[in-house]
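Reopening this one. Same input as before:
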Amino acid sequence: GGTAWLLHAAWRRAARSGAARNTFEEWLAAARNIVVHGSGESRRLPAYAAVGKPLIPLPLLSDPAGRRPGQCLADLQFLAYERLLRHAPATYGLLIGCGDVFLRHEHWPPPLPAADVLIFGLPASAEEAQRHGVLLCSSDGSPELVSFLQKPTAAQVRREQQRHSLLLDTGLWLLSPRATAVLLRRCGWNARRQRFAGAAPRPYDLYGAFGPALGRRPVRHDPLVQTLSCAVAPLRGGRFYHFGTSRSLLASVGELLQPAGERHAIGHASLESAAPPLVQYSSVAAPLPASARHIWIENSCLPAGWRLAEKHILTGVPPNDWRLRLAPGDCLDFVPCGREGTAIRCYGFDDAFRGPLRDPATLWLGRPAAEWLRARRLTPADAGCAAATDIHDAPLFPILPAARIDADFVHWLLAARPAPDERWRRLWLTAPRISASGLLQRAALARLARRRPERAAREAAALASRDWLERCPDLDLACAARLFRRSGLKPPPAPPATRTPGLTLAHDRMFRSQTATAPRTARRLEQSAFDALHRTLVAEMEQTPVRPLRNVLEDQIVWGRSPVRLDLAGGWTDTPPYCLEHGGQVLNVAVDLNGQPPIQVFARLCPEPHIVVRSIDLGVETRIRAYDELLRREALGGGFGIARAALALAGWHPRFHVAGGCRSLRDQLRRDLGGGIEISLLAAVPKGSGLGTSSILAATLLGTLGELCGLNWSLHDLFLRTLALEQILTSGGGWQDQAGGITPGLKLVSTAPGLAQKPTFRWLPDRFFAAEYANERVLLYYTGITRVARDILADIVRAIFLNDTRRLSLIRDIGQNALFTADAVQRGDWDGLCEAIRRSWTLNRLLDAGTNPPAVQSILRAVGDWISAAKLLGAGGGGYLLLLAKDAAAARRIRERLTAAPPNPRARFVALRLSPSGFQATRS
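Same output, byte for byte:
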């Protein structure tokens, strides 16, 4: 019923705001929703019962997704579940997740089957599965669910394993609108009247009632539910972390703190955590035992007078000067109630908080609850309840102003055999008291919610400059900046620019640009971040200077030419600083257009000691006679910026010359060439095409100059110098354009993290871009819409500097999709390639909303019935559109439609041909 109530509340809120003017069913069909359950009463994890397990605060993790200061479990859950939902078939509109579980899937999800209900499962042993739901599937590999068993015995699981493939239910389900409608009906929803039969949805257990009625052989009879199809999606290599108990909380967080390669396959409550004491948002002066295990301290103050043992969960402890010794297993939770009250919840590490008070098996503080009462000369009646009352409903926890809480009183509450003291007995009897169930209703959540971000900001602000620099490159600085702005605190001291590594300095300055209050200061700090990146990459080229010398006869012409690249997957992972810190992986293909390599450069010597650069396609030229005409910022911003930067990197500027050049450029040209250089450039591709034209032109020009001047540059040299050239121009592009254009064919290009980006090329079968498919089912269409990538590039690089979790997660997925695409191509799987292109397009649109402007949407709508996949090439927003037709007949219809009714006079189809050579340089 909770799912039904939440969806209904969301619909009503949308209706009140004017965002929904349709029926509940229509709203559900039009939107994709994620529902994460709060996981009930949290009896076995009392510390987070009031806020709900999804709001469990988490420390900074080794995983890039877990580096937001002030983060909670829900932050990780939603990030992971959004990832699965966006790659699910469009038939699924609702994702339901269990709040005390975090499911992490390291590998790219395979194409998901379509059904009314899809349940994600993980391989597990019988012992592991008995504590959870179990999915029985056919042993022939069919995705159809056979039966759903809720918490079966280990013996039952072992019997079923002999006949079925068995998976553990992760609690993560996808539902179609039809399945959602059935779920709502079982909760009492009346679609005709648009309301529930009662004042609220009827209780209905998703895992206990709905799940067992699913499958080919359901274990629970329900004719309505049995009309639904149900499939199972195994998540091979997935990791399952449980947060349902105090013990599993520590075990799962301990696992998440480990580097990814050292984690267990499944994080279970039974795991014994080897993690050191976990301390968050707390001031701890108390000594922490070196051998202690299972200690969690959060949002608490523990002065030097405290003495700890092991198995402690300590949450919300107010500022105090107590002297307090805890026995093993003692746990304390101080819960704000009302405006000033604080409930003192003491409990045992493994307490289940279930059962009648009088039952010896009902434990409190690890001992029978009745024994606690007897030791204090109390009865259940004194506690205001009957002996048969469930301990969860017994008002056992006193509420006092924080200033009135005394260490001796806390000790009296915890002690197995407290000393007779009528003061504390009388205080317990006369103070307002509350039960565990009552705290779910009366906890002052707003007071609790304010404390954690305030403490997180204060902790960061108190860091010394050196400590801040250690954290800065890994912290979500966008989130940190928001915390600082809300708290009004000043950032940690700024590190000196001269003694700070370039990338670290860039992260720091971009963070400070987000916290600056003056716009002018913010712009200056942001620019200093970009400048730090530019200096870092260009400095690499200054360490490898060159000596250009004459390498041709006076009448020879060097002719360099290159194809363009079509990026299929992985774009943005090649962009600094992302590739420098995480590595990159891109899959692209080099193609000629209309039968010719469209990027061409001609170079020859001339008698006059100057450099002439002409643009054939633009019909303009320039003459360069002095060094400062090469790298001066004003000159680089002109029409020949690429040529000026390329000439400098080729050694025609003292910064990149092995001997520092000469007194003047004219002297160097006269000495080393006996004259000057004439260069003609041709880019037979419209500006803003999305085909990597500018970078490929830069690489082609560098290669041509290398041949003219005897520099003996390899493709790797061209790759790195083009990357530096982009930084000199401050356009800040990545390496995939030159990697795709100067090397032939279809390939996966990868680099490892580090300043020295050395690409590894893995060539793939090119069948889908050879004659059978090229221009037959793979179509290239120029939209006639142009968009230069510089603005979007700056926006995304800014987000990378800030370690923005959402943007980094999307870029990481983009990289994973490159591997998925390579696998589909390697297997000759056309449908898999189409799925990969669809994912690329989805991820690019999520990364930048401007990728898919209305004019492009109109083109895609016009041919939508005939395409299996499509994406704009490059950064998007315009340029060339790659279309994958369903078949040859569909391709003909696409051509007919767009030829007969083009979106503008410039739009046209262009013939593509796989380039077998990449960059070539020949001389006359």
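So the earlier flakiness isn't reproducible anymore. For the record, The first strand starts at residue 33 and ends at 36.
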